[in-house]
Design brief:
alpha/beta; 2 domains; six-stranded parallel beta sheet; Rossmann fold; eight-stranded mixed beta sheet; 17 helices
Length: 413
């Protein structure tokens, strides 16, 4: 089938999980013989406006700066964004320029046809709505997260309105977990339109057997982690929603019973200095290693491989690809399992297929309990990791996710 995606992020522009998802799902759809087109952000207009990437046609229309003229009729809430007002203006510009190029150039001039639109989050849904109105083809609103969840109940009313309108106009809503389905239903999205399709990971890329013992040892030495110490690993943005503050607060309780641990925190965000100060206040600064930079995918894989366990205490996580990555690297994972949290659907916490621990991410004591559950049974923890990788192979490959998505498309074409 002929598919068009609107995705703000697309390699090499990746800010988070959406960019990874968009790349993997579109390339797999193309691999299965579909004609796949993507409209993505042309960051600072520095990229070519068209390229073919692994069978996927990628358009990055150059945008204009609408900020000054848009400010004339924007409402108070948008004007209150301050410096971020330009960001909203850029999203609007990306949406209109992309939809215009698709409708006027690709369809009307070049004679191309499309059977379905897949628009990702509020950043892509405006382009999807415009295209649906002009071409009268089915629109899928792919909801990876919501403004309510990302902002812990606060956030922009404008973005909430855009998301809600997208849910009403779209023919289908695909979301990434049953936890997210519940959230969307509570927000008033039409239940009969919602379909769940889990995200995924490439287990041939995230494979513990492809990382050498020497490479793992050297990374641990770089951080000053001895052979007799347990490396607990956190990866993610240093923002409230990722639960990294209660994680730091949990470490003193862990150290009471297990003094030979080191927590490695890999990520960037506006909480960096506050977290370091918190570690100093708790007198655990020598037990926490902060690496505050963006590293490439291979470096991330090396960190998973070198770690003994992974802890991801997100307060809100619609799916959590980092959890799937850690599982694929055969690591036991401690995950937040309260509220909207798709990671609890990935991690089996009991039985002979147990692959990790569920914790309340709002409670440092419960996070500490989860980490200690891993630490007190090393042999069982290793088996959890093996179970985790097996679960990825059975349920979370990109082939499975892509085929499920294509089946949903067919339902609405």
């Amino acid at each position: 089938m002929n598919i068009v995606h609107f995705s703000w992020e697309y390699p090499p522009v990746i800010y988070g999980g959406l960019g990874t998802f968009a790349m993997e799902i579109t390339q797999k759809q193309a691999f299965f013989g579909n004609d796949v087109t993507v409209f993505a952000l042309n960051e600072n207009n520095k990229f070519e406006t068209y390229e073919k990437m692994n069978r996927v046609s990628v358009y990055r229309p150059k945008t204009l700066d609408f900020t000054s003229i848009f400010r004339l009729f924007a409402d108070y809430e948008l004007k209150s964004w301050g410096d971020n007002f330009k960001f909203f203006s850029d999203v609007l510009g990306y949406s209109t320029m992309s939809a215009s190029h698709l409708i006027n150039n690709l369809v009307k001039i070049e004679g191309k046809s499309f059977e379905i639109i897949d628009a990702h989050d509020w950043l892509g849904i405006m382009g999807g709505i415009i295209t649906k109105q002009h071409l009268n083809i089915p629109l899928v609103f792919h909801v990876h997260s919501t403004e309510v969840g990302r902002s812990i109940g606060r956030g922009s009313h404008t973005i909430k309105d855009i998301e809600f309108e997208g849910g009403q106009v779209a023919d289908c809503i695909i979301t990434v977990s049953y936890a997210m389905k519940d959230e969307l239903e509570k927000l008033g999205f039409p239940s009969d339109k919602i379909r769940v399709c889990w995200n995924a990971v490439d287990p041939t890329k995230y494979d513990p057997n492809k990382v050498s013992v020497d490479d793992k040892t050297n990374l641990r030495k770089r951080y000053g982690i001895n052979d007799n110490e347990h490396m607990v690993f956190f990866i993610g943005r240093l923002v409230t929603v990722k639960g990294v503050e209660p994680l730091v607060k949990s470490i003193p309780a862990v150290l009471e019973d297990f003094p030979n641990i080191k927590l490695v925190i890999l990520g960037i965000g506006d909480m960096e200095y506050g977290l370091k100060e918190l570690a100093n206040q708790l007198n655990i600064q020598d037990k926490i290693i902060f690496r505050n930079e963006f590293v490439n995918e291979q470096e991330c894989i090396l960190h998973y491989a070198a770690a003994d366990s992974v802890v991801l205490p997100s307060l809100y996580e619609p799916f959590g690809i980092v959890c799937t990555e850690a599982m694929s690297m055969a690591k036991p994972v401690i995950v937040g399992a309260k509220g909207t949290n798709g990671m609890r659907e990935q991690i089996i916490p009991v039985g002979n297929k147990k692959c990790g621990i569920h914790i309340n991410p709002f409670d440092p004591e419960d996070i500490a309990w989860g980490i200690k559950e891993i630490l007190k049974t090393p042999d069982k923890s290793i088996q959890m990791g093996k179970n985790a990788r097996q679960r990825v192979i059975e349920a979370f490959s990109w082939e499975i996710a892509s085929k499920r998505t294509l089946d949903i498309y067919q339902e609405f074409i």
